[in-house]
## 1
Amino acid sequence: MSARPPRPRQAHPWAWWGWALAVAGASSFGTNPLLSVLLGLAVTAVVVARRTDDPWARSVGAYFALAGIVLAIRVVFAAVAGAGVGSTVLFTLPHLEFPEWAAGIRLGGPVTAEPLAYTAYDSLRLGLMLLCLGAANALANPKRALKSVPGALYEASVAVVIALSVAPQLVESTQRIRRAQRLRGGAPRGWRAVSAVVLPVLADAVDRSLGLAAGMEARGFARTRVATRPSSAATIALLGAMLLATFGGFLLLAASGTQERAAAAACLVVGAAGVAVGLRAAGRRLRVTRYRPDPWTPRDTALVGGGVLAFGTAALLGSTLWPAAYATMHPSTDPLVWPQLHPAMALILVGALVPLAVTSAPTAAGRP
Amino acid sequence: MTPTADAAPLAPRSVAMLAVAAVAGLTAFAWPLFARLDASSATTATFVFALVLPLVLAVVVAELTSDSLDVKGLAMLGVLAAVGAILRPLGAGSAGMEPIFFLMILGGRVFGPGFGFAQGAITLGASALLTGGVGAWLPYQMIAAGLLGLGAGLLPRRPTGGAEIAMLCGYGLVSAFAFGWLMDFAFWPFGIGPGTQFSFDPDAGPLANLHRFALYNLVTSMGWNLGRALTSIVLIVLLGPGLLHILRRASRRAAWASASRGRVVGPDASGLG
């Protein structure tokens, strides 16, 4: 009825990813366990309030479990195979020495509080990063995200879309073949049953792919590309950009001085930009229309802006420019003191909670 | 049966891209050997490469799917990735039972190294999207699975019949361990944390770190790697001959466009009608 196209109810999937990755990045600047727990609660609140009933939205529980497993493994290893630093002995485990060929590992012995606290702080931070990834997986619709990939990746995204839509059909195909086998009687058992079911299903799937290809070809799928091959200069530039980005990553880890770090970061950024430009150029050879593209609205910018606010504040607080804030971002574990919060950390939390203000809850049906 | 006829030769452009991707991937996996970071920031190293690898993957997969694959290759890629994505949750968590690697090995064997790389990467990508498992580990898994498929495509073409199955089983064994070691090595400092005697120590040399890693891996992951290898071997023996036949038949039936590029080919000629 209205002249204006209806406003999409759900935020852009890449905006969710931007927000979640920025909050994950914010958590990497400090080890304060109070901040980690508060941020974790904020992210959980956003997920609970904004997720839909879609299958991918249920995965966040698995990320909670994964974060718990990482925390448990690290704490157990720190207690059993710790390097024996710290003075506050909590309790003593039975003691086991390994011979020299096994690197002289010592298991058990006195368990001290300092390394345990350090491990727990670091693991909470890591768990928070995992939770942010889980939030992005739960909130961003993967099918819509695939629709807005760069043009150069169009074919790859088509292959993934085929995979995502064929997968449920394979389950149906398995049931059909099993029913046919039962009707014929004498259904095979044991090991033979595996190949007796899997091979017909796979043959069916392969036939389906040939039919699909014939359909796509008949509708002119492969004619959307401009016939010119990319020039060899463009290829060499793209290869160079890839190598530069890889080298930058390598150098960033291997370098020791500040200047070398800066050079490495520059390599990384220039290489990444080169790859982005090269992919854009490759994508321009493609002529396709998109069905109902997701528009990028100011609300999506606000969503990403919330993440950037959290990231920027954490980067400022966690930098050595501001010693008082740095101390609260990295509470001391040796000597062990109770961690403190800094007033500016509220800005990080506000940034993480921005989605609650700018997006709306999904409708009862869970679909836009 | 002509195993050599079905694998389309790769363009030099694609070969160069694959070589760079292999170098970038191996650098990213081997970073604990050369990193000079202090122990607390070592966990961020994984994230540095988790940002670089998607760029490399994007370039290589874009190249492989746009210029080396036609529509039929793309549809085959999508369907094989769907089979992998369905099979993967079946064995998840039970002692490394991962029933997807045999598909990548067979796909790479029949359709060549470029297809094998794309199949490995896209299978794991689609599977992660389907189960909501996108994370820092995904680019690593995609590169490692891609290299696994690539290696399967580079195996000698000559063996057929029983010898071929035996060779693929051997490759399944080796690649299962290689995949496990690569993934564990890249995430070793990240999974166990700094400060224990099994931990990555940036001040120790590469050899000392390798020794520590070997001990850590023996304790934690040997069962998983062995389970993965045995799953691949059992599935290749059980399903390999039949599946190789199905895939080769499909690749012969799909040869219509490459045989007659530029001409209109009716459904009768392709056998699809």
## 2
Amino acid sequence: MPDLTIAVAKGRLQDEALALLAAAGAGVSSQDLSSRRLALEDESGRYRFIFVKPADVPVYVEHGIADCGVVGRDVLLESGTDLLQPLTLEIGRCRIVVAGRTGTSLSELGMLRVATKYPQIAAAHFGARGRPVEIIELSGSVELAPGLDLADCIVDLVQSGRTLRENGLEEVEVISESTGRLVVNRASYQLKAKAIADLIDALSHEIS
Amino acid sequence: MPVLHRNMDHTESLSKIPAGMRYYFGLEARLRRTVEETGMSIFDGWSYEEITTPTVDYYSLFEHGMGKSEAHRAFRFTDTDGRLLALRPDVTSATARAAATLFAERERPLRLCYAAPVFRQQPESHAEWRRESTQIGCELIGANTRVADLEVLVIASEFLRRLDLDGTYAITLNDVGIFKGVAESLRLEATSREEMRQLIDVRNAADLERFLTRYTSTGKAQAFAQLMQLSGKRESLDLARAVISNEQSLAALDRLESLWSVIESLDLTSCFEIDLGDVARLDYYTGLTFKIYVKGAGYRVGSGGRYDGLTASFGKAEPAVGFVLDLDALTELVHRRAALESSTLASQTRLQESTARDREEQQPENSSRDRSELFIEALKRRAKGDRVSLKLGR
């Protein structure tokens, strides 16, 4: 039985997260990695990894099914979780931004239509500024929405900005920076204190 | 985001159960009763008197009793005169009011206990899906001594041990005076104080250290950030004394240390931890705070502490300490263990059931038989304490 179960967000962060964990002594063999199994043990047998959709990482960790998780700050902001966040991992750095059609101003619109995968973040951002908005929740290809006139702007994650440019959009405002975070279940933090402290130490050693 | 339900036929709304609500039946219902009775008998054994508070009460009671942000999670509705009512989101508020009003003249200390459902509309985390949960807890009102603090801690750990959870639970201790003293000595205004509290709460040591270097030396900032990160035994207190020098925090550390010494002499240190990073609900608690965690439950199963400011809201300021455990979470733990056959509590509950079943005898169809004879026989068996199950025609 492994000491800790770690939920890793699939996709954008996954490779960097696994590389960092491997450097910290929690490495998965390349043979295991090339398999399609969604639950793996590391080579030391101390850690079990589960690979889940980013938005599901906080769910697994809050329930204590996974003791820890690696997930982007964007996901944590969107789902409003009750988790410990002991480490900011320098991986998957990106920005959550408001972007609109290049050359058009958003400030004169009485009501802003916002297309996004992040309805909570978008609502909180415009709510704090007192702007009336219609949030249009999409699950992907958000950059299409302004061009097709579904929305006036989008709230989305931007890494290089290339996707924005190629779809005729430009950054209007940065809402927040986002990088990968280590999150920990509050009960595991107390009940598996030693194992978690070891992992935090090893990871923070790698980061600094 | 409103969710549109088209074509919802009326049978669905009849079979559907509101989110966060559930049924209990069978073994789980019996175990839940056993857990409740275990707890209430322990409270009784420590001379706590049962109190039942109103299920519906004024919303303002809970605003005063729990603080605005917690009370906000309640189900609310209006009375015939327009005043705002709530389904009780906690029991402590009404108990504190009773202490200041109904029991104002009674001799102190007051020892009160309860097991009652509470209702919360807004969950705090993904794991807290229940909107109706049962709190089992106690309040010790009118005594501001280390002995009173210890009394409730010892009761909580007796309860957990009686549920066969020995060796799998941890009670983490802190004193809010430590944080409050540090925040005051750094002269933080409200927003910075809250920023520091949040950084400690999520155990973000690196950002906490960065935050603190605005106010103090790098070395001190680093030492304090590390101190807030980890829980431990007595050595946590020694480490804290090396970093913290303000009077309020030191007094709080002394209080914790005197508690810890007794915990040591009771040989209970394996299930207690000192966790200086527990800084939840600082404005509610005034001294000791504690959280209860059990292996197998992803979320804390209980919490408590000292809240000397609470009864003042109801007109009679006096010290108070208490805790609540989540009866449903405890039942779930015991039930899951029952499935693995490792819990004596569950096997006892099962045993009672099976011996009762062995003795039960099926009655023949009562169509041809004198019905009064059937009941005479049934009552005779009932008088002996047997379990009967009448076989009824359709």
